Records
---
Amino acid sequence: MNVQEIIATRTLPYAGTVIAKVGQKVKPNDVVAEMNFYPGLVLRLKVSEHLAIAARELRSVIQVNVGELVEKGQILAFDSKWHQPQIMVAPEPGIIGMVSKTLGIVYLRRLTEFNPNPFEVHNIAEEFGISEEDAANTIIVSRNQKVVPGQILAQQQWKKDEFRLKYVASSMFGSIHKIDKHKIWIKSREISRKLYAYLSGEVVSVEPYWSVTIKSRAYKLNGTYGIGGERFGTISIIDTEYLKEDDIGARYKDNILIVKGKISKEALDKAARIGIPAIVAASCDLSVLRKYAGEGFIPGITGAEEVKTSVILMNNFCSTETMGDEFEFFKEREGKYMSVNGSTHIRAGAIRPQVLVFPDEGDA
Amino acid sequence: MPSFIITDIGSTTTKALFLAKRNGFYRLIARAEAPTTVEAPFEDVTIGVKNALEVLGKEAQKQFLSEKDGELISQEFEYYSSSSAGGGLQVLVIGLFSKITAISAQKAALGAGAILIDVISNDDNRSLYERVDIVRKARPDMILLTGGFNDGDVNFVTEFADIINAANPLPRFGTKLRLPVIYAGNIEARELIEDTLRDEFDLHITDNLRPSIDKENLEPARKAIHDLFLSHVMQQAPGYSTISDAVSAPIMPTPLAFGHIISELSKEEQLDILAVDIGGATTDIFSSINEEFNRTVSANLGMSYSIANVMQNSGLDNIKKWLPFEIEDIVLENIIGDKMLSPTVLPKNEMELMIEQAVAREALRLSLIHHKSLIRELPKDSELSTRGFISDELSEKEWDNTDTLVDMMKMGLLIASGGVLSHAPKRNQTTIMMIDAFRPLGVTRMAVDSVFMMPHLGVLAQKYPKTALQVLIDDCFVPLGTVISGEGSVKIGQKAARVEGQINNRKIEFDLYRGNIRVMPVSRNQIGNIKIIPEEGMNFGKGNGKIVETPITGGETGLIFDLRFGCDQRVSPDIVKEWLVSTGCFSSEEIENARRQARERSRDHSN
């Protein structure tokens, strides 16, 4: 197997701060950029209504541009047609998302700070000031549903035939963990604000606020199937035909395990508890992976599962064979840095899980 | 009358047919295939078409390609084509509410033969940021923007126009061109939409496809999609302008062509039709009900790439109930998982074939549920509906109260198409898979598209509908037979009806019992008339206890009387074995082989 040159651009999902510099040497676990805010709630500011102008006149009075970061109190629009200045100011800091030509609305993206709490609890009865029974009827989310900051969890739309709208919204990325009558528990989804290098190499270019491009040298292998996203660590070998719970200890934390044979569900759960970023194995029963991946799993399109430990299989599910030459390859490189991505798309133009081993870096 | 060359330019294969007159009738003379050349390094579909036509020419011993400069096909032939290459016609659909305008918009786009990239609606639980992100990354061929009843709210739909504007998506082909957007929403918002989108997009305004809660008007939007497909997508897709110049009628998206021939057949024969095309990744269901054409696509239900998704959606128990053998769940999951990982590998033994056919039944069943859920009556109570339009909860209730338009008792014909159905080792397997999954009621004819030529005939039917239908019947369809089934309160094991009649001058007379299936071999050339005399409590199409008299036609399987379902039948591997053997799907020996293979696989796994 030959070492290949890999050039990859690492991009933030939302504009933030690029930390890495051109020419800088990076390892897979180095942070190269980070988001400053979650892409979250949008405020609709009815500027034309506020200034008592026609919606189409907004363009002539707007003082900010799309993409501009505005401070709280900053003037967004200004008009003086009533012989005195009429202004609309930003009610809070944010980024100008869109300006509607026809509705007279400015869409302000709120700067949603990262929420470090593992849970968020809403008592809907208290927040609406209504009875617990009535509150239960206003909840519009269901268990296991994913939510984002600003997403409505409960709403009151009607009262005595008179239209009104009141709502309770999430302020974190998460999923609905539990609903008990009038109370909602949201469990935080572990969205990292950090963008890691994933590769071991050199930063060759930078796009401010968004991305870095890294040039790397690596051995590249493809698995047959995987789950979970990008992970990295140093190679640790476990020479067993069937990985059991007892085979794994805390010493393997932050190591990627290379397992000669199959993986048991118990071992997978323990790996996640210990903090093992990924396991590369010969095979695993599909039923184990389905249970491990949890609800909403789509077997044909993987990579987005919220699992602690990514899994990469080198053989198919029915396989009773252990890993052969590949196992020897990994064994010779124990201690080296390695990155994996379990994303698998089974379709025409398939994406198979990726395994990268960096020859120049690591303890060995 | 001319001879016809017809191609279907698929994602991977270009399939060419030659039809010409023989003894006064058009017949399929030759068929050929070549790899499609839409992708790099070729990026010109004409190369694949020429390759297919060269092979076709050799088969038919004719010269189809023109030797004149700038001409693709020799002038003595008429040329037609359908296409799904390069991912087909990809449309992003935006509607106000998922169960009102967004559904109507989906129906319009799917009915025009489109593939839906995504459906965005106000109640889709996505944040504004996510919607912008989806639109930005979509790279569709066009956007269908709808929303609002006429004289209803304009703000929501205008906000969606703002989202499109902010996202500024690029078209899939021809990055310098403006992306086509079709607006088919509230007429009151037209001016606002024009003001918002006219400068940056190729905006086309058509009639509101959902002018009120109880009315749909899908045809203008479908026509706009098709026109744009021809004028924009086909002109930009690599090599298509040459094909467009050569054809005698417009190129059609493959699913539209497939649906068109079904519509023509439905009109000609005056019957409701349900057709399925089950593929590796998706399953399309087409119906023609009261001459209204419908299509739905179940995106994650297919027999290779999506086979594990079928298992995930249906559950293992639903798959196992179609198997004549016991198998451990873990082993069954791994076998299905491996089929997903190696989509082109065919079943290696009887057990794998039976598992594949069991999954197919579930894929078909789930796809029909999806079809029924979308093809429904429109709500009638407009006052309540308008309130429902505002409140998600009410609109959902309103929608759930409407009935599906897909009535299996009224279906006159079921058509099977797609690998697992068209290429099943025995035609009886196709018949029984279809019956198990769709559970037809009353008297229903069945056929299978044996050589995948329905899209070809659909595109030909634009100009020659009678010829296309004649070839469909003579050379495309393999009749499977007629299935007769009833529903009612008669208990399992009890007499449900008496059958009397004549087939080819042979008198028949017997009783039908609830819980049983009975197959009578009747070939495609045999005809007959039968009378079904139901017991009280049973309905075979005319009502409770009412006699049904019907002509019947045979086919590869024949005449099938099926009363297995709807009577609390306890299904076990032995019962399934009995069904499969008595219907001629598998022999006892084949099933015993499968049982042995399942035992061996379970043993291998536990070792």
Note: Chain B touches chain A through 49 residues (CB under 8 Å).
---
Amino acid sequence: MSRRIGPRAPALVVVPAAIAFSLIVAPLAGLALAVPWRRLPDLLGAPIVVEALRLSLVTSLSAALICLVIGVPLAWLLARVPFPGRTLVRAVVTLPMVLPPVVGGAALLFAFGRRGVFGEPLADATGFVLPFSIWAVILANVFVALPFLIVTVEGALVSADERVEHAAASLGATPMRVITRVTLPSIGPSLRAGLLLAWARALGEFGATVTFAGNLQGRTQTLPLAVFVALESDRDAALVISLVLVVISLVLLVALRGRWWGAR
Amino acid sequence: MSGLRGRLVIRRHDFDLDVDLDVEPGSTLALLGPNGAGKSTAVDALTGIVGLDDGRIRLGGRVLDDPAAGVFVPSHQRRMGVVFQRHHLIPHLRVRDNVAFGPQAAGRRRRAARAAADDWIHRFELSELADRRPSELSGGQAQRVAIARALASDPEMLVLDEPMSALDVASRAGVRRDLAAILGDFPGPRLLISHDPTDVFLLADRIAVVEDGRITQTGTPAELRRRPATSYVAALAGRNLLRGSCVAGRIDLDDDDVTITSANTSVSGRALVVIPPQAIALHSDRPHGSPRNAWRTRVAGIEPLGDVVRVTLQAPDGLQADVTPGAIATLSLTPGADVWVSIKATEVEVWPA
């Protein structure tokens, strides 16, 4: 007979749970152990790293801001205005979340490529060609990141108290004033979360970018692309870039969660 | 100013509302009804949250909603000051900025709007709370801020939508006093939505009773109290309302095998009988003397009601008697106990139905 100390989680749960956690931690530990820490300052200064970091920050932040500017209005429409086909629009909006990014990149190419449905008239009229430019990187980032912002913000809008908005309208506030003075301030934390999620998604984007924007160092080669290329040529550089991405991701997580320790 | 004139028709798949609302400037109409009767829908239509399916709303010289004519004035242009059941203060704004929200929306500069807000805050004796956030206010305080905020937006009409129902009893008195004062001063039409007879009978000049999407009775509080048209109104007015057939002051009740005698012998045919609960006496044995109405029944329920205890009886079903707590003890009344009922014939009012 064993003495009971307290309720215990069953082994059949604990063991697979431990495996799951290890599966996530082991690769990261492997990465950390392989990093040539002594050469780190030199490697961080290498052109492939510096250029990719600069490009990644510029494109992912631009994409996140664009998502904010155009995503919030769409989220608001989806949450507040019952229009025919709303369910369909909602489904289409979340499509890039489940679509393989390569397919997204291909779709972008067929639409906005030099020979694309919209790209060709654009190139003919203005001479502006999107693919293989920094603009293509940003567009690909927006494509994959937009749903994260919209879903987050729409969820917050749906659960926000619409009666406060009605009260504000009865006080004479125009619909636009209600949005800017009442609605958006009340969902501040979700706006921040949506922005960070969109940024994180844009920062990690690979498939759509490489397909639509190519892999040109200094022009369209972002951090994830640089990792992929460096793995072939310079494994230490690949390690360092991976480390940079892990660190940025950790910082993002901290910003998202805020609180770390404690039972919950 | 011609006040509010409205016929509100809203059709839903499971419910429809069709009510006429006329409120003179400077007078308060109460829309009284049980939950689900359509009061909130009427408020939504008046304030522009939903459009009418049919009918028309006119406030002063302006038509606010007229689907036949293609007119719909949006909420923010209706100039209806609304006080809701919950305060619905803007959570991230301090009290002063909540009250200044209306003047600012009307185009006043921040400084002027705040000055206007401070006037109302002062008038409502809320100055100590001006820098607090809504989450730092009690329910009663928040509701008084909400009232000040509605008035500060300089409305043409006031709509008070269950303004006290979310408050505890202690803060209710304060808010009710404020409401009585502002309703007295406000020159435009006032509409009070409520299911609480106390508020309505105290604050309203006229009452429209809405049940199941229709107005079932309108009148002054006194008229409703004297002559409730439905059992809902009777219960609200604190009176028993029974239906039956009357011949020379003797009424055979429809629902029960009980005959009641009234001193009023002028009514014959279908009749409404109104009996105040405090006019019903309860006894453990057949009452002495000669009460014209005496019968034996059982106690269905007992519930304290302020200073008295309301006893619900089985025959006639749901008859309510108000007795003192002492009487409950002396008669050892419990649900299911046998009890004798007596009512003086002079206390039984009869109206033709």
Note: The CA atoms of residues 123 and 129 of chain A lie 6 Å apart.
